[in-house]
Amino acid sequence: MKTGYVVGLAFNRAATHITLIRKNRPDWMAGQLNGSGGKIEFGETGPQAMEREFLEETGVIIPAAAWQLCALREDELARVEIYRCFDDAIMQARTMTDETVEVYATDDDRLVREGIKGLPMLLAHALNRNSNGILKLETARPK
Questions:
Q1: I need a surface site. Which of 57, 87, 117, 123 has the fewest CB within 10 A?
Q2: Confidence of residue 141 (pLDDT cuts 50, 70, 90)
Q3: Which conformational region is residue 102 in: left (phi greater than 0), alpha (psi within -120 to 50 degrees), or beta?
Q4: What is the per-residue pLDDT for 135?
């Protein structure tokens, strides 16, 4: 059985800012920016996992109903569901774990320099509010 994960791209309503996590783990992601998220627990849906993970990592409640699936990466070992939301509460996000929470302007060039591979393309897709399509991402895993 594949392990299920969620990643959330949380924007303010005007889509001018995004909340990201400065990753400590896994090793290949250390020091890079990524959305919040983690493993889907038994009995949870993806949006329920996003609500829980975002609260655990940022101290902010974004209800499950606000998270919209926008991308998917799947391989033989894992399924990663990538969600987006637009809520001004993200501006109150703070660090709640050993991974630092940071709020960035969506046009900040650090998102390109310091984000995980593919983050700019993923952000462009997530920011397209007219797109209800789910972006399928490559399945190659880093070494």
A1: 117
A2: low
A3: beta
A4: 86
CA angle 118, 19, 75 (to 5 degrees): 35
Paired tokens of 135:
């972006």
d(CA 54, CA 109): 24
Q: Summarize the confidence of residues 96-112 as an average pLDDT.
A: 96
**Cis peptide bond upstream of 142, omega within 30:** no
**The amino acid at 79:** R
- Sign (positive or negative) of CA dihedral 92, 104, 88, 26: negative
**Nearest alpha carbon to residue 10 among 136, 138, 123:** 123
Q: List the one residue out of 65, 81, 63 whose CA is nearest residue 73.
A: 81
Our CA dihedral for 122, 72, 93, 102, rounded to 10 degrees, sits at: -40
Structure token pair of residue 136: 């399928």
Give the global pTM: 0.92
- Closest Cα to residue 122, out of 69, 74, 61, 55? 69
User: What is the CATH architecture assignment of 3-130?
Assistant: Alpha-Beta Complex (3.90)
Instruction: Name residue, tokens 């997530």.
Output: 126
